[in-house]
Amino acid sequence: MLLPFFNSILIISTGLAVLSVPISTVESTIQVWPKPRTFSWPQPQATLLSPTFTISTPNQIHLHLSSAIKRYLNLIQTEHHIPLVPPTLNFTTSTPPLQTLLVSVSDLTAPLHHNVNESYTLTIPTWGPANLTAETVWGAMRGLETFSQLVWGDPLRVAVGLFIWDAPLFAHRGVLLDTSRNYYPVEDILRTIGAISVNKMNVFHWHITDSHSFPLLVPSEPDLAAKGSYGPDMLYTPYDVNRIVQFGLEHGVRVVPEIDTPAHTGSWAEAYPDIITCANMFWWPAGSKWEDRLASEPGTGQLNPLNPKTYEVLKRVINDVATLFPEPFYHAGADEIIPGCWKADPAIQSFLSNGGTLSQLLEIFVNSTFPYIVSLNRTVVYWEDVILDANNKVSTTALPPEHTILQTWNNGHNNTKKIVSSGYRAIVSSADFYYLDCGHGGFVGNDSQYDNQTSGTSGNGGSWCAPFKTWQTIYDYDITYGLSKEEANLVLGGEVALWSEQADPTVLDARIWPRASAMAETLWSGNRDETGKKRYAEATDRLNEWRYRMVRRGIGAEPIQPLWCIRNPGMCNTVQSAA
Ligand SMILES: *[C@@H]1O[C@H](CO)[C@@H](O)[C@H](O)[C@H]1NC(C)=O
Ligand SMILES: *[C@@H]1O[C@H](CO)[C@@H](O)[C@H](O)[C@H]1NC(C)=O
Ligand SMILES: *[C@@H]1O[C@H](CO)[C@@H](O)[C@H](O)[C@H]1NC(C)=O
Ligand SMILES: *[C@@H]1O[C@H](CO)[C@@H](O)[C@H](O)[C@H]1NC(C)=O
Ligand SMILES: *[C@@H]1O[C@H](CO)[C@@H](O)[C@H](O)[C@H]1NC(C)=O
Ligand SMILES: *[C@@H]1O[C@H](CO)[C@@H](O)[C@H](O)[C@H]1NC(C)=O
Ligand SMILES: *[C@@H]1O[C@H](CO)[C@@H](O)[C@H](O)[C@H]1NC(C)=O
Ligand SMILES: *[C@@H]1O[C@H](CO)[C@@H](O)[C@H](O)[C@H]1NC(C)=O
Q: Top EC class per UniProt (predicted)?
């Protein structure tokens, strides 16, 4: 059999080429992304993976574990990843091919909920079966992923003589996808959940509805999607939702639904014009000040908190969503309430002229919905605006911290601090670091900024949150920066976010990956080495390798460097390696 050039190098077991390679390079040739918490591999070696290799478990049949084992066995046998830099580790023919991976789970009953134990240990001895042990099915899935990344080549090889103990630093590690501004078919969502899983993240935050379209077919309010979606082929039926939720369970990924209210609801007006204020108006009336706009972007409409019918419709939606999504977190939105939109309504005008305030309006809305969501046994997630917005915010007595989590997106770590110092748990999605859509230009038309020929920054790279967030920006963000230990304990984790004004399936993968992988590692095992220094230099090589592996697995992740850099390790760095 004719081996490719780099495979034949593997077989060299001694000699100058091997001896001159520094240990760090040896480690970096076989990659696991995100990097495990501890990885002991005193003498890097590899052996063949037996052609009859199997994964077996002494446990009883568990639906999701069985499907994960089947999936990984198939992946391992068919992937044949070829590392970009030939591994210089010792390939031993004296040890027999690896025949078996044993998977043992202590607690088969733990549901896939926030804070579930995802730890695992993986031992691959030089002789005998490999052993993966985990407290839960979900931890076993993380360990199976690690094992799959230790297999490569054709014929298949596997790293041996190693021990890994691994567990995440943060319990909540997610990707937000907005399916309202532009529509994504179910297959694209499934591929995204699969990619979330292989990066050892565990949350798909599904921002389903917004002002632009209402693609969710809610059984007791079918008109919302029938009239508010982009069309009958651009919606999600209960069957679709179930497929997505089940796919998530098979991959250890929670599907957290967001029905954003009371703002971002223009699309509801197609079915119920009377419950929406300022629907279908021009978002920024000619000649008016920015403060008097009707929406944060084109696409107006907010639920009217003074109309009893609002709550009849909304409660049916909430109830159906809780049925469709078994997940204990329910995201209720509450971001970017724009005063001008509510002020366009006559009933609200008289409420305000009789001494009522915008914040009272929001509190009426929250008091009419939050207890109902809690009664469905849900923890309610809101965007930070609900208590931090300058004009529309509720008093914290309306939102008891035991039932409330706040997701931050403004002002970097300052707002994270405000949230946790008020006693709330926080999910970090700082737009300065974690928004994947930024820096792609504005989407509004007829923009006079472009009249000027003088400035290269017309439109500030275009978007309100420009510039583009590089993978390094994401990798190096410390989500508990500036917090006390007690405050840091209230930070559940983070989510990168893809808002879809300028994204749809054609660009989905490249807009998310591999930048989301950067957050995945930082929240799993950190962004620092054993000495406490930021490890972005060696992470570059590892992320390169991982990006190519994701591409082979069908995820269209964008490149982070020219191939030349990967073939010439270290040569593209700003500073030459000291070693
Ligand atoms: C490969 O094996 C030789 C001989 O046992 C040893 O000297 C060398 O250090 C090993 N190389 C690595 C990378 O472990
Ligand atoms: C694998 O791990 C389990 C659980 O820790 C242990 O009981 C078993 O002896 C191990 N098996 C091997 C072959 O090391
Ligand atoms: C997870 O399970 C492992 C193995 O049983 C245990 O050692 C560890 O303490 C658990 N972790 C947490 C955070 O409970
Ligand atoms: C409420 O949800 C929790 C999980 O968050 C679950 O353990 C509990 O059984 C649920 N209670 C009811 C009454 O459904
Ligand atoms: C909302 O509910 C909270 C807590 O029950 C209460 O303190 C507050 O007065 C209510 N606000 C309004 C506007 O009804
Ligand atoms: C955070 O607050 C500090 C102190 O007020 C301020 O200097 C800084 O600009 C703020 N950062 C952001 C991102 O808003
Ligand atoms: C573009 O904006 C200008 C004002 O700057 C306005 O006069 C014109 O009508 C707009 N054009 C279109 C096509 O909307
Ligand atoms: C164009 O640039 C000039 C000089 O910097 C500035 O005064 C003017 O306001 C700019 N016009 C627009 C439409 O941005």
A: hydrolase
